[in-house]
Amino acid sequence: MDYRELMQTGEYEFLRTNEHLGNRIILLGLGGSHAYGTYNEGSDIDLRGAALSRQSDLIGLTKFEQYEDHNTDTVIYSFNKLVRLLLECNPNTCELLGLDEDQYLLKTPLGQELLDHTELFLTKRAVKSFGGYAGAQLRRLQNAIARDTMTQTERERHILDSVKNSLDDFNRRYKTFPNGKIRLYIDDAVNPDLDSEIFIDASYTHLPLRDYEGMWAVMNHVVRDYDKIGKRNRKKDSNHLNKHAMHLIRLFMMAIDVLERGEIRTNRKDDLGLLLKIRTGGFQKADGTFQAEFYEIVSDYEKKLEEAAARSMLPDEPDMKQVGDFVEYVNLRSIQGGF
Fold it and tell me: By the 8 A CB rule, do 305 and 29 touch?
């Protein structure tokens, strides 16, 4: 497929006409399955990119974080937001720095400089970021299978464990913080229609509203998970489950590359045999569950990730002085129009 020709169609006119994009885009490339090499005939084409902020966004009253076009599955981040995500080794944005040359559809000199500075963002934070995303994929996979194949009692126990994981993470983050403390926990229900339910103990003062909004979003997510207990969701089709399983392994592969090789390899062309076998149902049984061999592969990659983290020569944290200097350099170029 000629992706560059596709970009010239009316569907992608926003790339040229939006006030935040146009000649401010410094990097644009493939995302999703077309970036990984795991696409099939029905796969959507995703684009990911970075754009320079305007002067008013940097030192004025306007703000630009990212532009999304849902019709074309395109996401373009402001340079500053992209850097913040890269500092956390966010897998969805790290992928943009590890494409093959022919997978970049637009790359300016500043875009190339960003790629040349990839090592600034490669740290052992990748263990938690990629590992966390992989863990989330595994829980989605297990939850979907549990809701569709287990007995009601088994299903409730399994989903409850998943909810408790969310509660543990929330309590770890907010047990004590500068403005007070919050605790979420499960106890015997007050609601007569439930056996147990989630409760909250909260005490805080002078809490910024935006911080509360973020905390509420997490709590709302936990409640939605909890409300799924005992309810049978729409059955996930096999393709959906197999994609979850494939991405789980792909995330492990990418994390190990970062830790062992100090590089991001988004196109998994050397691993397509295993990844496509997973995606096409090669490890799924007739009842929708997965063969023991698949979970052995998962365990093997978990062990490889742990070993790679122990051996890795990457720094624990990024050098914020170097990152800060680079960000200032790029933003100054943006303000001066030298891009």
Answer: no
Find how far residue 331's CA is from the centre of its chain. 26
Q: How far apart are CA 272 and CA 274, in angstroms?
A: 6
- pLDDT value of position 92: 92
Q: Is 87 exposed, middle or buried (0-12, 13-18, 19+ CB in 10 A)?
A: middle
Instruction: Enumerate long-range contacts of 113-118, CB under 8 Å, 24 or more apart.
Output: 113/330, 114/26, 114/27, 114/50, 114/79, 114/330, 115/27, 117/326, 118/263, 118/264
Residue type, 199: F
Which carries the bigger pLDDT value, residue 207 or residue 265? Answer: 265
Q: Which amino acid is at 168?
A: D
What backbone phi and psi angles, to 5 degrees, belong to 177?
-150, 170
Q: Is the pLDDT of residue 234 over 60?
A: no
- Indicate the pTM of the whole model: 0.75
In the block, which residue shows the tokens 């998970």?
A: 225
Q: Which residue do the tokens 């863990």 mark?
A: 135
- Find which of 89-93, 174-178, 204-208, 287-291 is predicted with most confidence, using mean pLDDT: 89-93
Average pLDDT over residues 31-56: 94
Amino acid identity at 105: L
How far apart are the C-alpha atoms of 163 and 169, rounded to whole Å?
10
What domains lie within the chain, and their CATH numbers?
A: 3-118+317-336 (3.30.460), 125-311 (no CATH)
Structure tokens at 222: 């936990």
Class of residue 14 by CB neighbours under 10 A (exposed 0-12, middle 13-18, buried 19+): middle
Q: Is the pLDDT of residue 219 over 60?
A: yes
Length of the chain equals 339
b/e map 123-157, b = 16+ CB within 10 Å = bbbbbebbbebbeebbbbbbbbbbbbeeeeeebbe
310 vs 73: CA distance, rounded Å: 37
